Structure formats: C-alpha cells, structure tokens
C-alpha cells in the first residue's frame, strides 16, 4: 500500500503521519492552523488540555535523539496522554527479538499510538502496515527518507515569521541534502505550500542525482544559492550516514559552504536563519549567525511541541469519529 493510502482515513483526516509526500495542501494548512491553536497551551500556567486523556502513547526510538523525543513527550503530556519512552537499543531487539514481536507485545498492552524513529528508511511505513487497526503511527524520522514533523515545525516557523503567503518566498536549503530526511520532507512541504522559489545549495557530492525533478533549483555556490533569500535552512553534515569520503575536510567545507555574517550579505537583509539541530558550530555555520538576531533556531524547537500536539491529536481524533 502507498503512504497516502495508509496515512489518510476514509474521512480525509490523518490516520498515520508517515511522510509529507502523499498529503495535500489543505491537510498541511490544517496541521499548521491546529498547531497555532495549541501555542497558547504552552504559555498557560497549567500547560495541559484533556484531548488525549486516557490514551497511551509509546515513543519507540531505535536511534538516538534529544529534541525530537523530548518535544514528542512534552506534546503528549500537554494533551494529557500517558507516555512511555522506550529506547530500543537497550531493550528487547538488543536481545534478538524481532521488530514485529516487540510491536505485538506493546499492542497487547493496549497502546493507542507509536511515535517511531528508526535508522532504516521505510521503517515507520512497515510498522504502520503491520499494526492493529486502532493504532496510529507517527514517523519521527526514518533513515534518509522522511522526517515529517520536523518539516511541519519548520513550515510553522516560516509562516509565523514571514506570513502565510509562501508564494513570495525564496527558501534556500544549504548543506548535506544527500543524507537528509529533513531536506526531503521540507522540499515536499514547501512545494505543497506553493513556495515561490525552493533552492538547494551544496557541493556536488552532497546533492542526490535528479534533484531538479523534486521541483527545486540546484546551486553549488553558496553566495549564488542564497542570493536574495528570505529564508535559509542549514543542515548538519551527517557523517554517520556518509559512506566513504565525500568531502575533502570540514575546514574546506566551512570555507566554501559555512554560513558567516559576511556571506549572508548576499541574502535579503531580513533573512531568517533556521537549522533543525544539532548544530555543528564552525562547520555549517558560524556562532555569530547561529546566535544572531535573525536566527530562529530555538523558536523552531518550541514550535515542535505545538506542531506535534497538532499531529497527534488529529490522528487520534479521526479514530474517535470512525470507531473500528
Ligand atoms: C535531524 C534528524 O534527526 O534527522 N534532527 C532533528 O530531528 N532535530 C537532523 C540531524 O540529525 O541533523
């Protein structure tokens, strides 16, 4: 079954959240609007709404994570769900149990939703195809394939800073596009929101073949790529996914592609600087840029909570309307 068939319920609402491709503009905007309604919760003295009271959510992380796992946990708690965090590298699969057996055991504990991060592309989709019908799967990053909640929190951040008309924006994604699940999801989301100009900027070795087919403009020169950009999204060099040497050295990469205040003069004066984290200071960008007044890197983290609350409540709400 294709992702879109699995993701969307018969009522057109979210059933699972596996990837941006397969979703439509209306659903993306609904996620952003729902997230907007949750930002207030985070600012209240009592940071909770009862929407998912009595529901059990399991964070199933097969790969290390700090901000993604923490913001998923806070989002679930702010929706009043009960949350369990399972770090699988220290758990049953380490003892040889298969992924499906682990899932069957958790299903037997009447879990309602799994949030899954896995090093293999397609893992969340595989699990969604194999769980009991009442369970929702949220993809928190699978291999190099997809990281849809990160892309949505980035879209949310852009909309808050630049307004709802993506058509007038030039967005440049700079860095290791090749190994980035974040870049893939961002490109799909920016296209669905009809962004005026989407650019990817990196050395040839870090750009996947046929990238232009994704509807982006490809640049191998940083100043050219960020010229008059409204938004620059930087990505980490993902050494853990690189097979062999794709770059001469980090120092050379910084010289050519590291974003500094001086190179930023090519972009619009009010350019917004983003990064999904973790940042490698002095590799993909200078500290002055990361901590400067145009950087919204920490706002991205805060917005992650509201956006994850939106996705989790939407996936769960659909099931309440159409009980199995
Ligand atoms: C990203 C990820 O894990 O894909 N980080 C994140 O979710 N905040 C990007 C990265 O690891 O560089």
The tally of structural domains comes to 2
The CATH architecture of the largest domain can be given as 3-Layer(aba) Sandwich
- Portion of residues in beta strands equals 5-15%
Low-confidence stretches: none
Shape: globular
Please give the number of β-strands: 9
The main β sheet shows up as: 5 strands, parallel
**Helical fraction:** 25-40%
What are the bound molecules? N-carbamoyl-L-aspartate
From the 3D structure, determine the CATH topology of the largest domain: Rossmann fold
Question: In words, what does this structure look like?
Answer:
The chain is of the alpha/beta class and 324 residues long. The chain folds into two domains: 3-144 and 302-316, Rossmann fold, CATH 3.40.50; 148-296, Aspartate/ornithine carbamoyltransferase (Rossmann fold, 3-Layer(aba) Sandwich). It is built from eleven helices and nine strands. It has helices at residues 3-7, 25-43, 67-78, 99-107, 123-130, 148-162, 181-192, 222-225, 250-257, 287-290, 297-321, and strands at 56-61, 82-87, 113-118, 136-142, 170-174, 197-201, 217-219, 231-234, 272-274. The strands form two sheets. The chain has a five-stranded parallel beta sheet. It is globular, with a radius of gyration of 19 Å. The protein binds N-carbamoyl-L-aspartate (NCD). N-carbamoyl-L-aspartate binds next to helix 3 and helix 7.
